[in-house]
Amino acid sequence: YVVLAGAEPVLFVERGGKGLQVLVDHDDPRVEPSLAALADAVKRGRIRRLALERVDGDPVVGSLYEQPLLELGFRAGPRKLTLTT
Q: pTM of the prediction?
């Protein structure tokens, strides 16, 4: 999956939903709304489940994105953050 802001890609979810690539700078103002759009797609059933283990190749747990994802409804696991419909 790719999350766009306008016509520009901001997030890319790797096949299987285990990895997330942020395609813009981490402090870009489009990142948080794009994360919210991704979470909304799961909550609406467009994506069945995300179990993120990595962001930009690094563990999601302890990353800059962990707290925003938790605030969007992801649940913390031992090495991943999970959101299901």
A: 0.91
